[in-house]
Design a protein that fits this description.
Serine Threonine Protein Phosphatase 5, Tetratricopeptide repeat, alpha/beta, 5-stranded parallel β-sheet
Length: 991
């Protein structure tokens, strides 16, 4: 018997068999699995499942996709796929057979029921254990990342289920008299869920029973304020009655609930005793006079729960033997002070002698003098003004003496550096200190460090919701995500836009999002009352040296999304050591980020602030030219590794600066993928440069695009093509046919890669015309090759051969042996399709010798694949299998995944022709998987067709028909003639 299978949906969707994790694959496939799991074994029709996964926006291909997802799930879940027992087909739908407790939701429901039973029979410890075990089954947001209306509905249900269990656990703890124990968690819970009344009552009871009557009353005041502000209602009768009991000092509130139940019955059973003294209400002893200088906590505090808990634990650790110092650092507007105040208010109950606060103004031009700060703190501790020592050192000694043996919490906000902080530190381990600063206080001994980052999307949305209101955010969820993204998830920015929306109840969220769309206007929009993002950044900017400020402004346009050290050094015209020192100083000033060593980036809003500052146009143009030259040097080096047959100078203008040393294809791929976004941004900057700019800037950008074009499978080629289109339009406006022709070639090639044949034909024609006018025969040859491929895809084989022969002639004139060989193979494939397989085979054999001589792995793989096709057409199937196998070996060694996919579905056809259908099925399946990963739709269609034919041979008519229909849909959508082949297979299967 196989290992037990289990499923989890209370978090990310996961499946396990024993200790083995099973792949649940794409979000849509997880949506199908979820829809079946949460039906508790009931069958679901295809119509219901499509509605669950896509809702009203189901695509035309939804049914075919549903069948594919079900097929994949069956491959994953079934131990014997020939006889499925878990995922079975029923009429036009599916049913999932798994034991009830194999799903974590059902385990949670059973634990909750068992807890209720244990509570009913008085097994209190068991009840608490079961409730805790049930709550712990949640591992984050239920059904995390699973799309579709069914998942969204279930996500809400499962979240409410968890909240209900948590509240049951709180009530259980109160019944057991563990009042003090639950106060921290209840405080956090009421702040995270401010519109739920029941937890406020729990917190009031816990505080009152712990002798904190005033704090219990303050909870009611806060609840009343929140409910009135957010819902326009007063607290309900239960919470109001509890408030009156707290006001009246009801002694029964201090007694655990389980021991209260019988008290009223006994009182009614006996005669009243007028002589008995009334039971006095518990009263806390009067607190001694103590400093309480903490500013108010933020009522809508959001996120940071791990940091709050960790810092509180460090500050209040009863076993500490030295002064605990917690440091909170991060850029302006990140929420350092807000977090520090939350921690201070959570921890202050452990510091019975009070709390002190000082703003050290370290972010400004006038930081606070430590001696002056000490004078203020000493005065708060009762030292009269005339008793203050004059020297800072003497004040520090007095301060430490007064705090010795006392439990006082000190919050030092906005520290500049360690020298400002050291005189202000107590010497007693009974005290504790929280420090906030933009930069890490290197050299200052700290017990805990919180380096704050921006909010996650969920945290930013939570803050927006807390201020704006749940209904407004719920009405425009996508606009809300766009809004917090435009804010860079910076807490201060989110708070500002939320405040502006809150003050304008008729504004839609998308209205605010639109106002932030222009990056150069964004900083000006992020202002509300005395809150302004610019103010937070200006404080840091004005502390920079002239050199730092110049680098901060100069690099901003080029650092999208980031920049490497070498590229930044080139742009700044510095050597790498000096550039690194300068950039690291900006990181220390919290004006720049270093996510990994050697790479730098701006926060989105800091970059917008820097762009608003601007820079001299001449200096910016020179920096951009140096930046492009550096990137072009790297692009040329990468191009040479990808296209090793010809000197790079044949294609690209040499860069005047040295670039990175790339020694092999792996190095080239790594450089291209790392620098791609930087390259794309640089090309767009060049295209948008003023019309009078140096024309070499635009040409360098164009050559950079050409250099990366052979890496289409390794990069977001569509993004590169979009940049190329912008360059082409700019070049056309300036009458630069050389740049326009090269840019149009990339646009056409990208359209060809995505099988947008009409667009590819148009762009390639425009490229050819521009190249002819400019005399750029190098790119003209490339363009003619692409026009041949377009004709070949359309089954216009004679046109294809004509274009190929023209390209081959130009390649020979130019001495481009690598380009000549590649086009020869293309032409061989066109001749093969037109019935001239022998000719094609001879070309492949000739090309292989030349390609192997220069170790052109891409070319070798392609030649072997075409050779396999030719051998297949000639009926030499065993030799064809050998060619395809050699091709796959080359692809595996050089990680050429696109060619691997093609070789596999071609190999599947040959194996099927040899009667080896089982092996053919494996190869077609692997090809389909690769094509789906690569997003190669045309090859996906071929893989589906090969899979359908093979399944037909194996007798699985239903599965074969599903694959044929999918292939037909793909080919029809792409406008390819292969749709006819798929239709013929469908007709044969349906007949």
């Amino acid at each position: 018997m196989g290992a037990e299978i289990r499923f989890s949906v209370l978090g990310a969707v996961r499946a396990h068999r024993g200790e083995t994790v099973l792949a649940t694959r794409s979000p849509q496939q997880q949506a199908l699995l979820t829809a079946l799991l949460l039906r508790s074994g009931r069958a679901a029709s295809a119509h219901d499942l499509i509605a669950a996964i896509w809702g009203e926006d189901a695509p035309d291909s939804a049914l075919a996709s549903l069948r594919t997802y079900a097929w994949r799930l069956r491959q994953t879940l079934e131990e014997d796929r020939a006889a499925p027992k878990i995922l079975v087909s029923l009429r036009d739908g599916y049913q999932l057979h798994v034991p009830p407790l194999a799903l974590d939701v059902h385990r949670a429901e059973k634990l909750a029921a068992d807890a209720a039973q244990a509570r009913a029979v008085g097994e209190d410890d068991e009840c608490g254990r079961l409730l805790t075990e049930a709550v712990d089954l949640w591992q984050g947001e239920p059904l995390a990342g699973v799309p579709g209306p069914f998942a969204e509905q279930q996500r809400s249900r499962l979240t409410e289920m968890r909240l209900g269990l948590i509240e049951e656990r709180f009530e259980h703890d109160l019944e057991q008299g563990r009042h003090t124990f639950v106060i921290p968690d209840l405080t956090a819970y009421t702040q995270e869920h401010p519109l739920q009344e029941r937890p406020y009552g729990f917190l009031m009871r816990a505080l009152y029973a712990s002798g904190r009557q005033a704090d219990a009353l303050a909870v009611f005041t806060r609840a009343r304020h929140v409910l009135a502000e957010e819902l326009g209602v007063d607290p309900g009768p239960e919470l109001t009655a509890l408030h009156e009991r707290v006001l009246g000092g009801d002694p029964l509130l201090s007694v655990p609930t389980q021991r209260r139940a019988t008290a009223p019955a006994r009182a009614e059973a006996r005669e009243p005793d007028d002589t008995a003294a009334p039971t006095p209400a518990p009263t806390a002893p009067p607190a001694p006079l103590r400093p309480a200088q903490l500013p108010a906590d933020t009522p809508d505090f959001t996120g940071r729960s791990d940091a709050v808990q960790r810092l509180c634990q460090v500050l209040t650790n009863p076993e500490r033997t030295s002064l605990p110092v917690a440091s909170v650092t991060g850029m302006g507007g990140i929420g350092k002070t807000t977090l520090a105040l939350r921690v201070a208010h959570r921890a202050k109950q452990d510091f019975a002698d009070g709390q002190l606060y000082a703003d050290l103004r370290g972010n400004g031009l006038d930081p606070a003098d430590p001696g002056t700060v000490l004078g203020s703190l000493l005065t708060a501790l009762g030292v009269p003004g005339h008793g203050l020592p004059n020297a800072t050192e003497d004040r520090a000694r007095l301060f430490r003496s007064l705090l010795d043996g006392r439990r006082i919490l000190l919050l030092l906000d906005n520290a500049r550096d360690p020298a400002q902080v050291r005189p202000l530190l107590p010497g007693s381990a009974e005290c504790a200190v929280i420090i906030t600063s933009r930069a890490r206080l290197v050299g200052l001994s700290t017990s805990a460090q919180a380096d704050l980052d921006v909010f996650a999307t969920g945290e930013a949305i939570a803050l927006l919701t807390a201020i704006v209101g749940e209904h407004r955010v719920a009405e425009e969820p996508e606009a809300a995500v766009e809004l917090v993204t435009a804010c860079g998830h910076l807490p201060l920015a989110v708070r500002i836009v939320a405040a502006r929306l809150s003050a304008r109840p008729r504004w839609k969220v998308e209205t605010m999002t639109g106002r932030l769309a222009d990056e150069r206007r964004r900083i000006g929009e992020l202002r509300a009352g005395d809150l302004a993002v610019a103010a937070a950044f200006e404080l840091g900017y004005h502390q920079l040296t002239e050199e730092q400020a110049r680098a901060f402004r100069l690099l901003a346009p080029m650092t999208q999304p980031g920049i490497g050290l070498a590229a930044a050094a080139a742009a700044l015209d510095l050597d790498e050591d000096d550039a690194e020192d300068l950039l690291e100083s900006l990181v220390d000033a919290a004006m720049l980020e270093a996510p990994v060593p050697g790479r730098y980036r701006y926060h989105n809003l800091v970059r917008a602030f820097a762009l608003q500052l601007g820079e001299d146009a001449g200096a910016s143009a020179l920096a951009l030219a140096r930046f492009l030259d550096f990137l072009l040097a790297g692009g040329c080096s990468a191009f040479q590794q990808m296209v090793p047959g010809d000197p790079v100078g044949v294609f690209l203008a040499a860069s005047p600066v040295p670039g990175p040393l790339l020694t092999d294809l792996a190095d080239a791929r790594a450089w291209v993928t790392t620098e791609f976004d930087c390259v794309s941004n640089a090309v767009m900057l060049a295209a948008r440069a003023p019309a009078g700019s140096d024309p070499r800037i635009l040409r360098a950008a164009t050559d950079l695009v050409i250099a990366l074009s052979p890496f289409g499978k390794d990069i977001p080629y569509g993004q590169l093509a979009a940049a190329a289109r912008t360059v082409a339009e700019a070049a056309a406006l300036r009458g630069d046919d050389h740049a326009a022709g090269r840019a149009r070639f990339v646009c056409g090639n990208a359209a060809l890669q995505n099988t947008r044949l009409e667009e590819a034909e148009e762009q390639s024609r425009l490229a050819a015309e521009a190249c002819q006018r400019a005399g750029d025969t190098v790119i003209l040859r490339q363009t003619l090759n692409d026009r041949g491929l377009i004709a070949q895809f359309q089954h216009r084989y004679e046109d294809a051969v004509r274009y190929y022969d023209q390209a081959i002639g130009l390649a020979r004139e130019l001495g481009q042996r690598s380009g000549e060989l590649a086009t020869m193979l293309n032409a061989a494939q066109a001749r093969l399709r037109s019935g001239r397989a022998e000719e094609a085979l001879l070309v492949c054999e000739e090309a292989l010798v030349a390609l192997q001589a220069v170790s052109d792995h891409h070319g070798i793989a392609y030649a072997l694949c075409v050779q396999g096709l030719a051998l297949h057409e000639l009926g030499r199937h065993a030799d064809a299998v050998s060619s395809y196998t050699r091709c796959l070996d080359v692809c595996a060694a050089a990680s050429i995944r696109g060619q691997e996919a093609q070789a596999r579905f071609r190999l599947s056809d040959t194996l099927r022709a040899m009667g080896r259908a089982d092996e053919a099925l494996i190869q077609a399946g692997r090809a389909l998987f690769l094509c789906e990963e690569l997003g190669s739709e045309r090859d996906q269609g071929h893989s589906l067709l090969a899979l359908g034919r093979t399944l037909c041979d194996l007798g699985d008519q239903e599965a074969a028909l599903a694959r044929a229909r999918q292939a037909y849909a793909v080919f029809t959508r792409l406008g390819l003639p292969e749709a006819t082949q798929a239709k013929e297979l469908m007709a044969a299967l349906e007949g």
